[in-house]
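Run Histone-lysine N-methyltransferase SETMAR through structure prediction, thanks.
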Amino acid sequence: MSRKAAERWPCEMAATEAPTERLDVARGMENVPVSAWPPGAEPEPFQYTPDHVAGPGTDVDPTQITFPGCICLKTPCLPGTCSCLRHGENYDDESCLIDIGSEGKCAKPIFECNILCQCSDHCRNRVVQQGLQFQLQVFKTDKKGWGLRTLELIPKGRFVCEYAGEVLGYSEVRRRIQLQTIHDPNYIIAIREHVHNGQVIETFVDPAHIGNIGRFLNHSCEPNLLMIPVRIDSMVPKLALFAAKDILPKEELSYDYSGRFLNLMDSEDKERLDPGKIRKPCYCGAKSCAAFLPYDSSLFCPLEKPNIS
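Sure, done. The structure for Histone-lysine N-methyltransferase SETMAR is below.
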């Protein structure tokens, strides 16, 4: 090879091997990058956060540490000895949720070991706090706007991602929803936990402007994800989504917006699903599709009709 050719060769290599920068929807804030499809397309701008943040109207700080830690220093965390496992074990040796499937009936709350616990970071009761573990992709759907899918196999019971965003007070939720039109996407989710004494704990999360990849999850009447409240450091639960079945590569991820999937519905919940309201169509394509997206009338304050008599 001539000297002239040798001098030119490194430049040619640099030109052909220059890496192309790929969009990371998570902005480097997750364990693994989250790609977007098709190439060159990018979802609407929003501020990324992997965890809840305090929003208007809330009287609780989701980052405040409120739970004491366990003292399992020399022994593994097990029910009966670990203060975090009063309701039994949460995960098996493969980090899969133990109570999942139709036999679960209701999604029970989960308490993971927290930052004050003396157990190891590799404790089996630390799953959701480990963050994203699978390669996910935000993609453009035909009728549902943006969606979220997996690029690899996700076994049943594994934690997939959180639904994180601004934790809001009830009045702020009502204000934001009243500003929406039927054409606007609604990201606000209301989680109602029924405790043993009849009390209901409500948590409202809105990832519209500040949130994580969970905001791209679409509804399905036959979903492959189950949402469960998981508490770690704070009384404010993380809204964790687990695989309800084995999920294949390129399969879209979805959950039931109504919360009915694998949960019992009481009469109060049925009243909230008001069939007389103008509803958005559902495009999930499931055999049991209800034709319309779930609607929670308790969050809407109807405007008074003008007197036309």
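Confidence is low (pLDDT under 50) at residues 1-19, 263-273, 302-309.
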